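About this split. The held-out portion is used to measure sequence recovery: a designer receives only the structure tokens and must propose an amino acid at every position. Recovery is the fraction of positions where the proposal matches the reference. Here is one held-out target exactly as it appears in the evaluation file.
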């Protein structure tokens, strides 16, 4: 009897280890890719390269968080990439006009941010009302708001980037927390040391872009919102069963509207971040690639398009996995089309794991 009990205990421990590996396969695969590319990619393991990966992934992380909430409810938001563009050009256009009208730079920037976020919230409100009130499928509703975002963006910018913005945007968007000059020992926070001459700037070691703080704070807040609040519980409940949620007394209409407003808010915030990082209000028809990238990252992170499953931190791992893969293959000299093949294969693996082990996530 004792041997049987030990055998059962050993089986449970093996099953538990396997469950952890399967549940977090994307994280372990991320670690594996980092190890591989540290040998095959020139300068891949450099501090600047790792910082650049996360810094440039900030907008993708925000879009993936947006899609996580939507996908957990069983929906999908096809508009987030173009809402990002709408927010960027609406904000940039407002900043440009106000600054040209002799408003102060801080006031122009602040009003521009408000306008960009308001435009993105309007898209989410329209999509949410169509889905919750008129039962329009999320695919169609967000396809409609995507078209609206494209049309309004083109009307604002005419298909060209919006420049001549208030000074200092890129200084803020590309700021680092710590600057160190090893040769002289000089260091400072949030700006290069005043004692450093122009010809010494290349010798500066920059540590932790300000975008690290931004994305860390938002990931923490959204993780808490999804995991530890009634809002998060209702989100999972709606994705698990709409009928059961209604019988449980959840106001599903209001909740779905809030979900899509939250999604486009995060997309609008991503547009503002892109504006601060690039210094121009950019709109491109390649916005569809941004939302497909975000959806792929969320699925790789363990979410299911059927709804009811998804985690913020796992979606973040999905984004980093795709970004590390893109960066590492590029530094390794792999031709671009192989990168698309690699991403497609990883996405297929994620879907297969979800189908084979539906209860792990």
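Reference sequence for scoring:
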């Amino acid at each position: 009897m004792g041997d049987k009990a030990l055998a059962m205990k050993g089986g449970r421990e093996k099953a538990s280890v396997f469950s952890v590996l399967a549940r977090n396969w994307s994280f372990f695969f991320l670690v594996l890719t980092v190890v591989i590319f540290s040998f095959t990619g020139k300068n891949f393991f450099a501090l600047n390269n790792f910082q650049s990966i996360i810094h440039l992934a900030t907008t993708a992380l925000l879009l993936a968080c947006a899609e996580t909430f939507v996908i957990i409810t069983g929906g999908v938001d096809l508009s987030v990439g173009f809402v990002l563009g709408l927010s960027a050009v609406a904000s940039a256009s407002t900043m440009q006009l106000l600054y040209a009208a002799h408003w102060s730079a801080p006031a122009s920037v602040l009003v521009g941010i408000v306008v960009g976020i308001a435009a993105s919230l309007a898209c989410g409100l329209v999509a949410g009302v169509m889905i919750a009130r008129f039962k329009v499928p999320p695919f169609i509703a967000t396809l409609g708001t995507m078209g609206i975002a494209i049309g309004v963006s083109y009307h604002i910018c005419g298909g060209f980037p919006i420049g001549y913005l208030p000074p200092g945007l890129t200084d803020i968007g590309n700021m680092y927390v710590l600057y160190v000059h090893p040769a002289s020992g000089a260091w400072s926070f949030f700006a290069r040391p005043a004692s450093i001459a122009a010809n010494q700037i290349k010798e500066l070691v920059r540590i932790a872009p300000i975008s690290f703080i931004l994305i860390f704070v938002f990931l923490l807040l959204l993780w808490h919102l999804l995991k530890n609040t009634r809002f998060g519980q209702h989100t999972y409940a709606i994705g698990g069963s709409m009928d059961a949620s209604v019988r449980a007394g959840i106001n599903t209409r209001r909740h779905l509207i809030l979900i899509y407003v939250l999604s486009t808010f995060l997309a609008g915030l991503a547009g503002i971040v892109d504006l601060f990082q690039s210094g121009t209000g950019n709109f491109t028809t390649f916005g569809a690639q941004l939302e497909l990238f975000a959806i792929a990252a969320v699925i790789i992170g363990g979410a299911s398009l059927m709804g009811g499953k998804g985690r913020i931190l796992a979606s973040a791992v999905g984004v980093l996995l795709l970004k590390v893969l893109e960066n590492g293959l590029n530094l390794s000299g792999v031709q671009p089309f192989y990168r698309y093949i690699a991403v497609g294969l990883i996405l297929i693996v994620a879907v297969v794991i979800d189908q084979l082990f539906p209860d792990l996530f």
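Annotator remark: The domain at 40-356 is CATH 1.10.3470 (ABC transporter involved in vitamin B12 uptake, BtuC).
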